[in-house]
Amino acid sequence: MAKVIRNIRRTDDAIVRELGTLGVATVHEAQGRRGLLAPHMRPIYRPAKIAGNALTCEVAPGDNWMIHVALGEARPGDILVVTPTSPCDDGYFGDLLATSAKALGIHGLIIDAGVRDVATLTEMQFPVWSKAISAQGTVKETLANVQVPIVCAGCLIHPGDVIVADDDGVCVVPAENAAMVLEKGCARERMEEEKRLRYAAGELSLDVNNMRPKLMEEGLVYVD
Amino acid sequence: MAKVIRNIRRTDDAIVRELGTLGVATVHEAQGRRGLLAPHMRPIYRPAKIAGNALTCEVAPGDNWMIHVALGEARPGDILVVTPTSPCDDGYFGDLLATSAKALGIHGLIIDAGVRDVATLTEMQFPVWSKAISAQGTVKETLANVQVPIVCAGCLIHPGDVIVADDDGVCVVPAENAAMVLEKGCARERMEEEKRLRYAAGELSLDVNNMRPKLMEEGLVYVD
Amino acid sequence: MAKVIRNIRRTDDAIVRELGTLGVATVHEAQGRRGLLAPHMRPIYRPAKIAGNALTCEVAPGDNWMIHVALGEARPGDILVVTPTSPCDDGYFGDLLATSAKALGIHGLIIDAGVRDVATLTEMQFPVWSKAISAQGTVKETLANVQVPIVCAGCLIHPGDVIVADDDGVCVVPAENAAMVLEKGCARERMEEEKRLRYAAGELSLDVNNMRPKLMEEGLVYVD
Amino acid sequence: MAKVIRNIRRTDDAIVRELGTLGVATVHEAQGRRGLLAPHMRPIYRPAKIAGNALTCEVAPGDNWMIHVALGEARPGDILVVTPTSPCDDGYFGDLLATSAKALGIHGLIIDAGVRDVATLTEMQFPVWSKAISAQGTVKETLANVQVPIVCAGCLIHPGDVIVADDDGVCVVPAENAAMVLEKGCARERMEEEKRLRYAAGELSLDVNNMRPKLMEEGLVYVD
Amino acid sequence: MAKVIRNIRRTDDAIVRELGTLGVATVHEAQGRRGLLAPHMRPIYRPAKIAGNALTCEVAPGDNWMIHVALGEARPGDILVVTPTSPCDDGYFGDLLATSAKALGIHGLIIDAGVRDVATLTEMQFPVWSKAISAQGTVKETLANVQVPIVCAGCLIHPGDVIVADDDGVCVVPAENAAMVLEKGCARERMEEEKRLRYAAGELSLDVNNMRPKLMEEGLVYVD
Amino acid sequence: MAKVIRNIRRTDDAIVRELGTLGVATVHEAQGRRGLLAPHMRPIYRPAKIAGNALTCEVAPGDNWMIHVALGEARPGDILVVTPTSPCDDGYFGDLLATSAKALGIHGLIIDAGVRDVATLTEMQFPVWSKAISAQGTVKETLANVQVPIVCAGCLIHPGDVIVADDDGVCVVPAENAAMVLEKGCARERMEEEKRLRYAAGELSLDVNNMRPKLMEEGLVYVD
Asked: Which of A52, A147, C157, E18 could join A5 in a cystine, given CB atoms 3.0 to 4.6 angstroms apart?
């Protein structure tokens, strides 16, 4: 039995927006190096950088019917996250669905499958992270679930989790961790900013981070 | 015995041009979802969009001799379609051959192998869809066939078939289907344009396509 | 025991610079089609074109400690060449290390693993050729060697060898061959320039290279 | 903070055993085609067929420390399920750990990474489903979680879920569904046994399943 | 419109049988190194060696309906050759279909997709060459063509062509070439048998094939 | 200019033999986790376990001529190690060459490319570790070097280095390290034997290796 869960709790917009500003690498570090989707998830154009609430959607292989259903659940600020129930590279999503998604306020698409009409999506500036680009169309025959927890590109994603995506890939932050990850991420960024200035001035990271004693202790040898 | 077939029947220019305007996704749908080359065939730069008559060319692995022979058969408006007789990612084609191809009026290259000098090809705006980018050069030792039916990236292609290629990939339309596919593709485009306007205005695809009754019939359940 | 070899002999700057102008495809041909790194080594942005002295660095899987050590050995004009001791796609290098590398005069990074912060690296115009883009961070726990001979993406590279990298990939020229390869590469380029003009004028490569007699001799048949 | 959750509720032994008898294909169908791990998970020897309770274990890339911790939680009838927190093909598990696992009553190993000593594991008849075979060893530096929900080869697995593995791959049955899936699987098997006899007698599946009317209705045409 | 072509001309049984005895490597050489399916087509058990007439079958991705239709067209000595119209690794074929295929006299299955129940297929000794092993089941919704020319794993195959498959892979011999390829293959085998005896006696292939003069002529240098 | 280096210094037979007994995983550990060829190098049959002196051989892509030359340099106890100068999966080596190699006392083949006639090689018990199995034949046109240092599957191998190969993969031990690696490997094996007995008796590796204090120190928490 396929179901659509409604009235999902979404994460606070301000938190989402600020996580998006930090970007994937910082968020991923701040979260203890968890939540990164597999690196085969690549943006169809660059640069691209978004954040939003996960609107999760399962699809049967070669069948995009449930994406239409998922769009019926969209709220402005959502990111559509689609995973096939069996691996598939077909082009599930194109310019028509993107037109609808954009009109509904969706920030972008994360899909562990294929996408098409990428020239038009690029012109529209509707960002997509996908496993493949393929013109292969899909049918509308089989039900699946919308707004349930899904595994997408190796990560568990709940509806309303925060998705952050940029040129480095895609990261999920569970809703309950969002505030804490944001705090740690901001702290990390401040610390990095400081280092950046010193590196730019020519200081070595060996010195900035005081790495030499530990390197010697571990037995590193310099040979002239 | 290797052979070059001459006096190939080409498809009418006007039809080819219009198929090119439709693009790969529409042409592929209009043709009943057939004729799409494997999605590993990617453009070396984007955006790129061409259509033309297939000028087919087999090559031995690591050997680009027959590409030189194929160029001798070129007519303006052709697209060179190259397939190795055994899988190979070497760089069969570079800026010199592209200079010649362009001078001969060839619209672009489809090659289920590697290509090189891609910076120059991009500057020249000579579009290529390939399996790989590789500087690995090739020899000129072994004969193969030109202008015979070939299998390229999983599709059977006859000389004079229509090739359509864009950022979504590459599609072949058999010459005898070209007029019919064009007609269906244009009809499809008109229908899509109508939907596009309604989606852009915020209507849901569930309603535009009247999907709700069938979803209910199949047993989809909405849970609050 | 891990070691850092100092006082590496570098290749003459003028030679390096001119090899870089020739580009990967020409250098690789001039060197007898040797020294090309595996084609999975792709630039994070295009166009990009660099040449420099190899500053070699081993890293443990998921551990970028030795990159910090390697930066301590940098000389202006070096290219950092990093290889993991076991296959790994993690993001070893990001914008902080790039800031340091750039300040130290390093021309770019070749890494048979992953890289992150690619949007920032692109803005900074710090070029990288890598196997993957991944936000996955690394630890600083394990020693390895710096400025020793390494195998990177299938090629043996000695410290001080010349690295040439562009949109076609990456090529290594052993220091002792650099002058000779440069000479052959320049000769090749002159010869190619001549052909380019004739091709652009519409002459066939079959004629420019006098290929027809050998083709006939091998048994090629033209069928009307 | 890394943790080990104790006193996990395990699934009833009798149910587990019978699910194992059904095998992966039947269990997967009975569960509505859900729960199949990615097909890159292959047995190191064939035939092999096991079922058991999932003992889940995260590991850092290139670090097998937590497998030692997980073995401390083993109960007879468990199957060890290991997933790296970032993709890794290293050989995390060999004959020493297998000796321990076997002594502790563990039925086998499911690991989305590499395994080694496969000749000895085969002699010992300790079955493993893995992504890779690799002699590359691992370190013991980094903590991770044991007996928490994990994503392994694309599937969410909770401690105490039922794992069924055979030559076709690996399937997970959530503990709460185990009894129902068993029932449906047995029913399916009875139905299949009946068909098998009719097929073996030469009857066509078209007739046994009364497919001809629907095929005609869909428009299938027979051409002499 | 999907169709099933009947009354296909099959190749003579005696020729098929003898081509099977020669095996894939010899047949492929005898045919001028053509007709080899892509090397991802691997047998599910070894050793396995068959030959037969191609019974060709298209299937939609994730849909095995047409395999049932194809079995209705089987003649003893056929080999079922299945290709999906879009790439798919699902398990299209299992022990039930194998029971039927065996009862109908089919020699084996070639499928550019997945197969399941491989333990049972191995016990039954029903040989399969496939791209994947996967328990993922399929639906029965979409029509496609049976006994039409198809492209399978990169090769064009007509109904009634000869398929030869063994541990090295799969080769197709067009019906019209079968007799000639058999003749050349037998000649090749006789020649190889002679060489085999001389090699086994310790003679070098350099001498048996008189390679030294050409090696010297090409410039090979022996350095002590 | 292609060359064959003669009078290579080989490693002492007794050391080679004993390294072979230790096997790949132990030798690789004893050598500080270095020298493992990429895990795509898999045995064509299992079990298989050999050791020998590397007889190194470069080949052009799709060209096995130099294997014939290399066989002319064989000494009993050698292992033939072949690497293509550009990636290639063709079947470079079959039963004829295996017959010759066996007659010359060669222990097996390591090839970063394809091999064919694997059913016969299995019957002959001539072991091969390769990247692919493919019936695709090769030509004899292009020279390359024999008995020079080569990079094979990511590792630098000198003629006369020790190759150890078994079901886990392939490892190279530089000739100058062979005695030391053997000594360390034997010590490791004795230590492992002791642990094996304790594990088999049901002792936990946590206790045998006294891991609990360090785990607690790192902060591992047990939760009931």
From this structure: A147
Residues in A closer than 8 angstroms to C114, CB to CB, are 39
Contact E18, E183 (CB under 8 A): no
Residue identified by tokens 């190191």 is D44
D96 in contact with chain F, both atoms CB, cutoff 8 A:
yes
> How far apart are alpha carbons A77 and A97 in whole angstroms?
16
Chain E: list its partners (3+ Cβ pairs within 8 Å).
Answer: A, B, D, F
d(CA E20, CA A144): 46
**Closest by CA position to E187, among listed E33, E35, E26, E49:** E26
Closest of B91, B86, B95 to residue B134, by C-alpha? B91
Among residues C5, D148, E14, which one has the least CA distance to residue F220? D148
State which H helix or E strand residue B143 sits in.
Answer: none
Any F CB within 8 A of E213 CB: no
Which parts of chain A have pLDDT scores under 50? none
Residue D76 corresponds to which amino acid? P
- Whether C90 and C62 have beta carbons less than 8 Å apart is answered as yes
- Give the end-to-end CA distance of chain C in Å, rounded to a whole number: 71
Residues of chain B positioned with their CB less than 8 A from the CB of F86: 62, 90, 136
Nearest to F218 by CA among A5, E189, D69, D157: D69
DSSP letters for D115-140: E--HHHHHHHT--EEEEEE-----B-
Q: Vertex B92, ends B88 and B93: CA angle to 5°?
A: 150
Q: Which residues pair with B43 in a beta bridge?
A: B129
Tokens coding F85: 């100068």
Tell whether omega for the bond before F174 is within 30 degrees of 0, i.e. cis.
no
Q: Any CB–CB contact under 8 A between D139 and chain C?
A: yes
d(CA A192, CA A209): 11
Q: How many angstroms separate the Cα of E168 from the Cα of each of A164, B127, D6, E29, F80?
A: 47, 38, 50, 13, 21
Give the span between the Cα atoms of C222 and B2, in whole angstroms.
Answer: 9
Interface ipTM above 0.85: yes
**Predicted confidence (pLDDT) at residue C116 exceeds the cutoff of 90:** yes
The residue assigned the tokens 């290529």 is B128
DSSP state string for A51-111: EEEEEEEEE-TTB-HHHHHHHTT--TTEEEEEEESS---SB---HHHHHHHHHTT--EEEE
Residue C12 three-state SS: coil
pLDDT of C200 over the 90 cut: yes
Provide the CA D131 distance to its chain's centre, in angstroms.
Answer: 12
Query: 3-state SS of C84-136?
Result: ECCCCCCECCCHHHHHHHHHCCCCEEEEEEEECCHHHHHHHCCCEEEEEECCC
The per-residue pLDDT for E7 is 86
- Spans of chain E, pLDDT less than 50: none
CB atoms near residue D76 (< 10 Å): 11
CB contact under 8 A, D118 and F167: yes
Burial class (CB in 10 A: 0-12, 13-18, 19+), E182: buried
- What is the structure's pLDDT at C130? 98
Residue B88 · residue B61 · CB < 8 Å: yes
pLDDT in the model for residue B1 = 78
- Under 8 Å between Cβ of A25 and A49: no
Using DSSP, state whether C146 is helix, strand or coil.
strand
Strand duo E78-84 + E108-115: pairing? parallel
Per-residue pLDDT of chain F (224 residues; tens, 9 = 90+): 799 999 899 999 999 999 999 999 999 999 999 999 999 999 999 999 999 999 999 999 899 999 999 999 999 999 999 999 989 999 999 999 999 999 999 999 999 999 999 999 999 999 999 999 999 999 999 999 999 999 999 999 999 999 999 999 999 999 999 999 999 999 999 999 999 999 999 999 999 999 999 999 999 999 98
